[in-house]
């Protein structure tokens, strides 16, 4: 099941050049681009691992593509995303976020039903991947 | 691809027109006017510009070629204009579309090499990323390589540089600069660099006449002029200064003029009574030059260090 999170996730995978153009758009708007990765794709997992620092003073998006590729070398079997952070007062939050790398196999999520009092059912989802320990997922 | 989105390949290109409209003509003109002398350097830059224009035209006609290797080395003594020319090259490459932004990032060993294990790679990569889209200028590049210390972290920086120079040829252009003899030795022991650099440009020392003209353009930039005596004294100064230690071509001239302006200000302050006109405020006289220690046979060690700083 293809993970659909962030921008462009209904499009085919972005090429390096697509990534560069998007990252350049962020830089031209004054946003800091950063790269993050994870092997826990739950939609509520907002804290992915940071790959280096946000790039506050790179004028050209080739730097972002370079870091994406460096990250792929080490975490190529995981999810990698590119973020653009807007530091201006009042925003101070993420303005862009898109996935740039995904595992070869994406097993997706299962529904978990929990029976509560009075026949109440609580539903949640769990990704199949996280049933393996960290590091062994998507191996 | 359907007919609408298909790019139409032109049948012909007009090199002269693209020379003008790309702004290359203007950069070369500026280079000619702003920099005194340096004929061989200017010639090499003109040739490179021609090569790139033709390369670009070939692309436009669909004669696809690989991105040409643009990494360069600049060799020459201190103050011969290497940094100044690097700035113009960055501008030139930008106008031709070979670098996307055209900024110049100037670094030396300390900006690239770390102090402890694990420090160098992030430092070097940080610098490389900053330079992407522009030109990375590595001054005195041979300090990266310290064969006498086998655990030197410089080697790590070199390896990353070589990798990026090869893999990210579209993203940045690297210019290595330094004194000729040491650069030769550096290249001899680092064949990886030699083979990645297509253009070796040598910066000759300036002649006395050229330094004289440089002194006048530098003054003119700041709205000063020599009077007759000042000009004569400057000519004599140049001859004497060249023979003394730590001579740094155009930079020595710039420093001498900075000190001359200081003396001029003091002279005006001490000797003038009553109103001064623009001419008086902007004239460098013989006395302002002749008070230099150069005429007493040389700079002592303190001054020499000042000069280098
Ligand atoms: N041909 C020239 N015409 C006018 N000014 C010049 C010329 N060449 C150099 N200068 C001036 O001389 C000074 C030193 O030049 P620059 O910094 O480019 O030298 P460099 O070769 O990089 O020296 P170093 O090797 O010591 O770094 C600058 O202020 C520059 O403006
Ligand atoms: Mg310099």
Automatic annotation (TrEMBL), chain A:
CDD domains: RuBisCO_small. SMART domains: RuBisCO_small. Signal peptide: none annotated. Gene3D superfamilies: Ribulose bisphosphate carboxylase, small subunit (3.30.190.10). Keywords: Calvin cycle, Carbon dioxide fixation. Pfam families: RuBisCO_small. Residues 4-103 form the Ribulose bisphosphate carboxylase small subunit domain. GO terms for molecular function: ribulose-bisphosphate carboxylase activity. One of its GO terms (biological process) is reductive pentose-phosphate cycle. It comes from the Bacteria. InterPro entries: RuBisCO_ssu (IPR024681), RuBisCO_ssu_dom (IPR000894), RuBisCO_ssu_sf (IPR036385). Belongs to the RuBisCO small chain family. HAMAP family: RuBisCO_S_bact. Heterohexadecamer of 8 large and 8 small subunits. The basic functional RuBisCO is composed of a large chain homodimer in a 'head-to-tail' conformation. In form I RuBisCO this homodimer is arranged in a barrel-like tetramer with the small subunits forming a tetrameric 'cap' on each end of the 'barrel'. RuBisCO catalyzes two reactions: the carboxylation of D-ribulose 1,5-bisphosphate, the primary event in carbon dioxide fixation, as well as the oxidative fragmentation of the pentose substrate. Both reactions occur simultaneously and in competition at the same active site. Although the small subunit is not catalytic it is essential for maximal activity. This is Ribulose bisphosphate carboxylase small subunit. It comes from Salipiger thiooxidans. The lineage of its organism: Bacteria, Pseudomonadati, Pseudomonadota, Alphaproteobacteria, Rhodobacterales. The gene is cbbS.
Automatic annotation (TrEMBL), chain B:
InterPro entries: AAA+_ATPase, AAA_lid_6, ATPase_AAA_core, CbxX/CfqX_mono, CbxX/CfxQ, CbxX/CfxQ_RuBisCO_ESX, P-loop_NTPase. GO terms for molecular function: ATP binding; ATP hydrolysis activity. Keywords: ATP-binding, Nucleotide-binding. Residues 68-203 form the AAA+ ATPase domain. SMART domains: AAA (SM00382). Belongs to the CbxX/CfxQ family. This is Probable Rubsico expression protein CbbX.
């Amino acid at each position: 099941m293809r993970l659909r999170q962030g921008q462009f996730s209904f499009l085919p995978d972005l090429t390096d050049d697509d990534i560069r153009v998007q990252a350049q758009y962020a830089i031209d708007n004054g946003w800091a681009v950063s790269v993050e990765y994870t092997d826990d794709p739950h939609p509520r997992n907002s804290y992915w691992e940071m790959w280096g620092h946000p790039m506050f003073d790179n004028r050209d998006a080739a730097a972002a593509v370079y870091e994406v590729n460096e990250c792929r070398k080490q975490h190529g079997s995981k999810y990698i995303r590119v973020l653009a952070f807007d530091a201006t007062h009042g925003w101070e939050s993420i303005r862009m976020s898109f996935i740039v790398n995904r595992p070869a196999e994406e097993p997706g999520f299962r529904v978990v039903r929990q029976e509560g009092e009075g026949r109440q059912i609580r539903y949640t989802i769990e990704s199949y991947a996280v049933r393996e320990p960290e590091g062994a997922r998507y191996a | 691809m359907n007919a609408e989105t298909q790019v139409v390949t032109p049948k012909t290109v007009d090199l002269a027109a693209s020379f003008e409209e790309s702004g290359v003509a203007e950069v070369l003109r500026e280079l000619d006017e702003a920099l005194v002398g340096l004929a061989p350097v200017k010639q090499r830059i003109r040739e490179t510009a021609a090569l790139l224009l033709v390369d670009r035209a070939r692309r436009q006609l669909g004669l696809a070629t690989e991105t040409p290797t643009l990494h360069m080395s600049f060799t020459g003594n201190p103050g011969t204009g290497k940094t100044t020319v690097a700035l113009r090259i960055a501008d030139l490459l930008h106008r031709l579309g070979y670098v996307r932004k055209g900024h110049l990032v100037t670094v030396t060993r300390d900006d690239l090499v770390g102090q402890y294990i694990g420090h160098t790679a992030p430092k070097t990569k940080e610098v490389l990323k900053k330079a992407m889209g522009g030109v990375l200028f590595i001054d005195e590049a041979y300090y990266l390589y310290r064969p006498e210390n086998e655990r030197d972290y410089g080697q790590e920086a070199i390896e990353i540089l070589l990798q990026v120079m090869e893999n990210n040829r579209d993203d940045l252009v690297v210019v290595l600069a330094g004194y000729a003899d040491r650069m030769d030795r550096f290249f001899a022991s680092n064949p990886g660099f030699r083979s990645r650099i297509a253009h070796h440009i040598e910066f000759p020392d300036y002649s006395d006449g050229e330094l004289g003209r440089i002194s006048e353009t530098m003054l003119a930039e700041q709205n000063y002029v020599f009077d007759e005596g000042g000009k004569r004294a400057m000519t004599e100064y140049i001859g004497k200064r060249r023979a003394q230690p730590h001579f740094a071509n155009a930079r020595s001239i710039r420093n001498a003029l900075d000190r001359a302006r200081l003396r001029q200000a003091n002279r005006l302050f001490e000797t003038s009574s009553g109103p001064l006109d623009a001419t008086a405020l902007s004239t460098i006289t013989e006395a302002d030059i002749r008070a230099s220690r150069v005429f007493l046979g040389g700079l002592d060690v303190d001054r020499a260090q000042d000069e280098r700083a």
